[in-house]
Amino acid sequence: MPKPSASKAAAETGKTRRFISGVVEGFYGRPWTMEQRTELFQREQKWGLNTYLYAPKDDYKHRMYWRDLYSPEEAEKLVALITAAKKNGVDFIYAISPGLDITFSNPKEVATLKRKLDQVSGFGCSSFSLLFDDIETEMCPADKQAFSSFAHAQVAVTNEVFTHLGQPDTFLFCPTDYCAAFCTPTVSQSAYLHTVGENLLPGIDVLWTGPKVVSHHITVESIVEVSSVLKRAPVIWDNIHANDYDPQRIFMGPYKDRPTDLIPKLRGVLTNPNCEYYPNFVAIHTLATWCGSKGGRVGGQRDVEMTGDDDDGAGSDPCYSPKRALTLALTDWLQEFLSTDQPGGPRPLNPTHLKKESSDEEPMQTDVGDPVYVPGSGDNPLFTAEPLTLDDLQLLSELFYLPYEHGSTARTMLTELDWLKAHREAVGEAETEMTAEWRSRAKCFDVMCVAVFTMFNRLSNAPNRSILYDLYNYICDIKSGVTLARAYVKQLGGQSRPSAQVMTDDPEPWGFRGGLSGEFQRMLPCHGNRDLFRHPPMTSVYSIRPFCPEDKTEIQKIHMEMQRGEVKAPAAALPALISDGLAGGQLSPSPNCGLVLEDEMGVCGYALGLTDTTAAALNNQRALLADFPSLVTMQLHPRVTDPAPARRMIGSLLSLMKTSGSRGVFCELRQGDRRMFDFYSKLGSFTTLKMAGLPQDVVTMGTRL
Ligand code: GDL
User: Which of 64, 244, 402 to mutate to test the pocket of ligand 1 (most atoms within 8 A of CB)?
Assistant: First the structure.
């Protein structure tokens, strides 16, 4: 008889199960080595984490060839790994991803799955997981016949495997809809999640990544909502530090934007961090601090008073400060950087080497086998790199912070470069107050650039080469980016001739960065939206939905209000715009070419498009613009201070218009409408159109689609 499930057993004995905490190796790309994993278990134990979920996407026998049994050599390695996990008090969960090609209704397939898991069970593993993330949702004809839905198919096989394995204490299921963004239409109305919640055996826990695949915030409310559908508290599979989706990014900021009030509402948290093993020190260390924050000490972590001066945008979590957790992590990490990890590493700093002036005296020979070169007078002094400092690591973390946020130094550098560029005319002939300010800010910018170079040099000389090699591409990349920015500012300030690196029409390959993928991205409207980072984070939750005729009154209100506010002139004196008809309700947007922005107070913006403006242009006695046959108009209520929703809305509208067959769009602005002029200019794709036949008192801007 199968033993009762863990949750039932726990309920019967009144015991609470321990909070699952640790790491999921669940990313795409090169899996970690057995040595790295073994080292991870030691760290986890030291820091009080208790779980490791083995799920490397590109490991052959985990996903693509899930049916294949392990060879004796592979088996030996897995046994060693599982034993090492046990030795360090870490629960090793073996995950398998059969979803690429399993036929759920075929008993032979299910038997194959059981056979594979039985083999791993024979290696000493007692915790398992079935993952159905990132797979095709369309069932094959045989499965369609056998199951009423994809969720029913997955749940049936998962329950069967769970029972076959004797209802292990830990058994995790990753749904295909593993975040709110994937649920149709919403979490609470998702038929898929309801089926999982109602039918998955209660001893099985469910993985969940939060509102999105890579969630910026995870709120208590969102977890309460999904728990009620799943009928159990989820285990968070946290992609906050995952970097497998962008080869130019790596994340070394603290675990953040998850209130510690979540802890009692969750079954656990597993972080799926950067592909590079060594730079995950901060990701895992800070997660450990977070997990231990409610109950005081965690494992080997030092006690820290977490209340107080947290200015890290985390609000007022009394139990956890990302900023302090980061400092704790970096302080420990520094020690690791400074320890040599391979023979032949750099010489430890020796007072003889540090001597700047050389003397004629023979140095005292202390180590006969290793003669030390001592420069003579007139020789070059020996190169001695200064050791890495905590400030260097702080800077490193700030430059490679989190997916939705740069660290403060990075933000300052971007803001300063933006300002220096925008005020470049200040460095004119005559010295003014503005010139002085420009020069002083340029100097500060230069100091920040030099700090990046210094950090790079010290990192390159750190005795621990394994960490350095994992970081190398990233720090080289940032060094080059900063070098270009520095040269540009120097050139603006007249301190150097037009830089060979910045302005030449035949640059070296490092002068144009980002490869083909970057090239594609730059060609898209609203590309990158990078300056999101320079603005304060969003203060409200916005949603963008299709326009419907009932929205006309609200849209008219915003239109009138903005017209009064932006342009200081009596209404009668304002030039007529074709777009007034769209916003005023006299003209209807083309089908599928209208969007409405809403916040908690209601409609707060709109973006409307007219694909064919021929009739409207004739009515307004306007020339037709051959390359820009369509019109867009957009407005936001002044209470919307975040630039991001507006950019997202216009980006979506332009895509809709393109889908509707438009080749190019124009917009019209009144001369004084600085706000919208700046908005369209900053998008990068709109340019001012200067053509005969366009009215003088109206600014017309256009973009090809
Ligand atoms: C995902 C994948 C994960 C990947 C991550 C970040 C889950 C459940 N699955 O969707 O393997 O590393 O995104 O790219 O997160």
Answer: 244
Q: Are residues 561 and 662 in the same domain?
A: yes
The parent domain of residue 424 ranges over: 390-511
- Active site includes 531? no
104: phi then psi, degrees, rounded to nearest 5:
-60, -30
In a domain, 529, yes or no: no
Same domain, 487 and 577: no
Instruction: Show the CA angle centred on residue 535, arms to residues 529 and 536, nearest 5°.
Output: 130
Closest atom of ligand 1 relative to the 242 alpha carbon: 6
- Choosing from 302, 326, 359, the residue where a domain stops is 302
d(CA 128, CA 173): 9
577 shares a domain with 491: no
Q: Is the pLDDT of residue 14 over 70?
A: no
Residues 498 and 610 occupy one common structural domain:
no
**690 vs 662 pLDDT, higher one:** 662
Main-chain phi, psi angles of 523, to 5 degrees: -85, -10
Distance 95 CA to ligand 1 centre (A): 14
Q: In this structure, is residue 103 part of a structural domain?
A: yes
In a domain, 380, yes or no: no
pTM of the model as a whole? 0.74
**β-bridge mates for residue 128, sequence order:** 94, 171
Retrieve residue 39's tokens. Answer: 């080292």
Given a cut of 80, whether residue 304 has pLDDT beyond it is no
At residue 271, φ and ψ (nearest 5 deg) are -95, 135
pLDDT score recorded for residue 676: 85
- From the list 59, 134, 169, 341, the catalytic residue is 134
Distance 615 CA to ligand 1 centre (A): 49
Which residues does 347 contact at the CB level (< 8 Å), separation at least 6? 353
Domain count of the chain? 3
Higher pLDDT, 117 or 584: 117
The answer to whether residues 632 and 680 touch, using CB atoms and an 8 Å cutoff, is no
Q: Are residues 479 and 547 in the same domain?
A: no
3-state SS, residue 666: strand
Dihedrals φ, ψ of 111, to 5°?
-65, -40
